[in-house]
Design goal:
Length: 437
């Protein structure tokens, strides 16, 4: 059996555990997942395969959603099962939330999450989003005045405000790596990382996928620099799981915070946090004071149906196959790159190489042709095509924390997922070409 098959059969075991605990509530869901798996396995070509997958989504026929980078679309079977769980929850709240009912399924979701990211269950926390995970890590590190945090000028506020808070209130010093653009070779980044680290550096905090450009950070190479120096490598993985087949051990990161409501297509308000066992004595969020269990004295009461929905979304991905999902996101991304490259008013700011790219493509727009906000609004209002205007650093805190020029790209970001199609990409590119002609 191939390595990937072993991994996904482990994931199925965790999903099956949820079903065993909740047999009657999960029966219909299990049948739907099995049907999907069988149909995916039987599909003779890509066109039929992805049309079949698309039928699992409730997206309005007119809506073209190219923005999983902001928020994903949850499959219908997950929504339906979650609604059933919500109804059941209210039929006997105490037993369902704390007792022998639905609550029993939560630990299996934590195991599923661990398998999904290649970690162990006691390295995983089920959170609400990346921002929460990053905050738990930043506060849990108990940094001292003068300790340094190295990050980049391309981070999202959700992965950066936590450090800027420590800079403002606890005397932590920030350093910002100015991201090269374009990146044509990972050495450009590695040289800058190595050059900015010093004896006071305690943390390097980088996004797995750059929210502006879609660049995939060479984390394993960065880990080879940070780990021997005992610098904690913190990763904002908001854009990773569900788009890429993420393996946190292979990436070499010490912590990884992500948002499952983006590419993993989980219910809104679902996130994951990985804290590598070997750094758990250095990263001690108070929320984990009484342990890593889903419900704990310090974590408190949870939204059980939503947590089970989180697990179901992972089961949905596993039924299709995580490598297949990644390949599809990337294939559509390549098509976006190929088509938009033909439009003279646009210039690609996403790296071309497979290892440095992802399922998000960003093009800078010639300012003489208009602003990205105009393009975004026109596409949304006239065609129901949802793109994303991308500007620069998303620091939702006062500017004085970010020294130096902030990047400003007047750019448009396109996220392609398994419910998108070649036809949607072709139409978007044609309309964009006409608009910018
Ligand atoms: C890189 C990155 N980090 C953090 C976030 C914030 O995610 P959330 O609002 O789910 O915490 C985003 C959202 O787009 C992001 O792209």
């Amino acid at each position: 059996m191939a390595c990937k098959d072993v991994i996904s059969s482990k994931g199925l075991a965790a999903a099956a555990a949820v079903v065993q605990v909740l047999p009657e509530a999960s029966e219909a869901l299990e049948q739907q997942v099995e049907r999907l798996r069988a149909d995916v396995g039987a599909a003779t070509d890509d066109v039929h395969l992805w049309r079949r997958v698309r039928r699992e989504f409730s997206l309005n026929p007119g809506v073209v959603h190219f923005n999983c980078g902001s928020i994903g679309a949850t499959p219908r079977m997950v929504v339906d099962a979650m609604c059933n769980y919500m109804r059941r929850c209210e039929s006997d709240p105490y037993d369902e939330v704390f007792g022998k009912g639905l609550a029993q399924g939560q630990a299996a979701v934590q195991e599923q999450a661990a398998e999904f990211l290649g970690a162990a269950a006691d390295e995983m926390v089920l959170t609400r989003n990346t921002t929460e995970g990053m905050n738990l890590v930043a506060t849990g590190l108990h940094l001292k005045p003068g300790d340094e945090v190295l990050t980049t000028n391309h981070e999202h506020g959700g992965g950066m405000a936590c450090w800027q808070y420590l800079a403002k209130h606890q005397g932590v010093k920030m350093r910002y790596l100015e991201m090269p653009n374009p990146v044509t070779d990972k050495a450009q980044i590695l040289e800058r990382v190595a050059g900015l680290i010093n004896a006071r550096t305690r943390v390097c905090s980088f996004s797995h996928i750059d929210t502006i450009t879609g660049l995939q950070m060479p984390l394993a190479d960065i880990a080879a620099i940070t780990r021997p120096k005992e610098i904690v490598l913190v990763c904002d993985g908001a854009q990773g799981p569900g788009m890429l087949d993420v393996d946190v051990k292979a990436l070499g990161v010490d912590t990884y915070a992500s948002s499952s409501h983006k590419w993993m297509l989980a219910p809104k308000g679902s996130g994951l946090l990985y804290i590598r066992k070997e750094v758990q004595d250095r990263v001690q969020p108070i929320m984990l004071y009484s342990g890593y269990a889903v419900y704990s004295g310090s974590g408190g009461t949870r939204n059980v149906p939503q947590i089970l929905g989180h697990g179901m979304a992972m089961g949905f991905h596993n039924a299709i196959g995580r490598t297949k999902v990644e390949a599809r996101c990337r294939a559509l991304s390549r098509l976006v790159r190929a088509r938009l490259r033909e439009i003279p008013a646009l210039s690609l700011i996403t790296p071309e190489q497979e290892a440095l790219s992802s399922g998000m493509v960003t093009f800078a727009l010639d300012p003489a042709k208009g602003t990205n906000a105009e393009v975004f609004n026109h596409f949304k209002d006239a065609y129901n095509i949802i793109l994303k205007p991308a500007q620069g650093t998303y620091a939702y805190v006062p500017e004085d924390h970010v020294p130096g020029p902030r990047p400003s790209y007047n750019a448009i970001r396109v996220s392609t997922h398994i419910f998108n199609s070649e036809d949607e990409v072709e139409r978007m590119a044609e309309l964009l070409g006409k608009m910018l002609a």
